[in-house]
């Protein structure tokens, strides 16, 4: 039997699923590095394999999100993670590019499906803001452990071991999903499904604007994160110093989600979202133009915390605007679309105009994000989002 979404057992299952589904955001540098160093693929080929995985996640998320209310989340999560485990286990044993490409795409489809129902289920909980913050905290701890242990295992046993680690993580997530993945609360008649026999109502325009704002922030996140190491080198900082600036990121990222949970009832979500893109753009400009190392190091350390903090507020607000969970089931697509667009956009700008242009681009994206977030209401409740429920 599936557990309740707001029970301890259900929350633990969602934490495990979130960590497994978001592993690419943690492991991407190791992933691409292994493909280049061990398999001897060039950077374009290695990046292409990672992009195929991300595209698989996006396709699965976009395809399943509109149907979330009709899906058996436990079954989709278990099968999706099992597909991912099988794909990575097979990747551990092969070396040719075409086969690896197919396995990356297939794994992305499976994991994207599992992650979509995970986020959709979180959105249907009694406290989506707090539960999303909780799984974010879990991801922070997982990142610290993963990045501390996996490079050492790879050094001792070989780079392909990374795929075996991925397979193990996905297999664990599949097992936990079978045993404890929670069932989302049943839709309320009128409030979420409309009259019997009718299709779900279309998403409110405000929800679409909120989604667009999140995508803008994820593009800036990926664009900046992809080139911050190279920007530091261009400023004359030594590689050792740049690596030292990257070390605190994992530890710093433990706190934003917890802080967002504590401030849920004290800071308005809309206000946070109107300010966050501007702060993110300012930090990007600092990283790309800093002439002194201390300023560069501090900006790098806190950069990712902005989107983690803001996304928690966005998730909670949008989950209340859309009680069906469909919009938040598309969270993987929002995140991975930015991850796919950002590096390409950033590389094009750097090649043509230099690293400083990324700060300008981040500022322009921030203006678009703020315009989108300005269309959100100051607050939302499940009943307010669908007056028919009253």
Folded structure, characterized:
The chain is mainly alpha-helical and 390 residues long. The protein folds into two domains: 8-180, MFS general substrate transporter like domains (Growth Hormone, Chain: A); 205-385, MFS general substrate transporter like domains (Growth Hormone, Chain: A), CATH 1.20.1250.20. Helices cover 76% and strands 0% of the residues. The chain is built from 17 helices and no strands. It has helices at 8-21, 23-37, 43-64, 73-91, 97-123, 128-157, 161-180, 205-234, 239-246, 248-252, 256-262, 269-289, 293-321, 326-329, 331-353, 356-373, 382-385. Helix 8 runs parallel beside helix 12, helix 8 packs antiparallel against helix 13 and helix 9 (239-246) packs parallel to helix 13 (293-321). The two termini are 31 Å apart.
The first-level CATH class of the largest domain is given as Mainly Alpha
Helix % is over 70%
Q: What would CATH call the architecture of the largest domain?
A: Up-down Bundle
Name the overall outline.
globular
Number of domains: 2
C-alpha-based Rg, rounded: 20 Å
Number of strands: 0
H/E series, N to C? HHHHHHHHHHHHHHHHH
Beta-strand content = under 5%
* Structural class by secondary-structure content: mainly alpha
Helical region count? Answer: 17
> What fold name stands as the CATH topology of the largest domain?
Growth Hormone, Chain: A
Mean pLDDT: 84
Low-confidence parts, pLDDT < 50 over ≥5 residues? 188-197, 381-390
